[in-house]
Amino acid sequence: MKTSKKILAVAVAVSLAASTMAPVANAEVSASVGVASSYLWRGFELGSGTPAVSGSLDYSNSGFYAGIWGSSGDATAGNEYDLYVGYGAEVGDFSYGVSIINYIYPTGNYKETEGLGDFMEAIISLGYGPVSFVYHDNIAGDTGGYAFGEDYSYAALSVGFGAFSATLGQHFEDVPVFGEDGEPLSVTGDATHFDLGYAYNDNLSFTLSTIIGSDSGYDEPEPTFVVSYSMPIE
Q: What domain range includes position 12?
């Protein structure tokens, strides 16, 4: 597992380094703000019903991108901001991407975590037409954030049909299960979730998410319905 993570990290780093050679003339800076009725993370409702406010600032240049995203609304980890860098491209109906994201929680239960951020993931994504697949692999920070073990990974398969979308996601190894107070109850076991989404327009969207399988030994949470609204900052 450690060897595969090193290979994945090197592959991502090489791709990102190559992408920095793109012409500066294609550079673009964008920003957005958003609000959601609750903080939904890979099938788990992290905010115990607390609304979440978020914002992002991004730089892109010929497939290369980097940015920062921040959010409130997490009952356990408190405020969050993520730093990310990646590269993506399309060839006909086929698309692919590689990225690294660093999750940082300056408040809440993970604020004392040492090192750069609370955990870091390398991500590979593939798509063909309306179907996409993404794989996340924890490569650093195995004692912080929501990656309680170095073997934690996550994969999701999604399909879009018009304004609707469906996602089947799978957590592998060391999945936190949350109680009513937002505290993690367990750090072992896999979990599967299924999401249905509907985009009313470019700004307003709805998501119904449910855990459909878990071997954690705890009761599975109730389905979560989330309303999200986002808009670009011109």
A: 2-21+29-232
pTM as predicted: 0.81
Query: What does the pLDDT look like over 142-165, one tens digit per residue?
Result: 555 666 667 788 999 999 999 999
Q: How many CB atoms lie within 10 A of CB 179?
A: 13
Residue 85 structure tokens: 């860098």
Pair 182, 46: CB distance under 8 Å: yes
Pairing of strands 94-104, 40-41: unpaired
CA atoms within 13 A on the CB side of 61: 15
Q: Which CATH number fits the domain that encloses residue 132?
A: 2.40.160.40
Q: What is the dihedral of CA 228, 99, 78, 34, to 10 degrees?
A: -20
Contact 99, 82 (CB under 8 A): no
Residue 152 to residue 159: CA distance in whole angstroms: 24
Residue bearing the bigger pLDDT, 51 or 18? 51
Q: For the chain, how many structural domains are there in total? A: 1
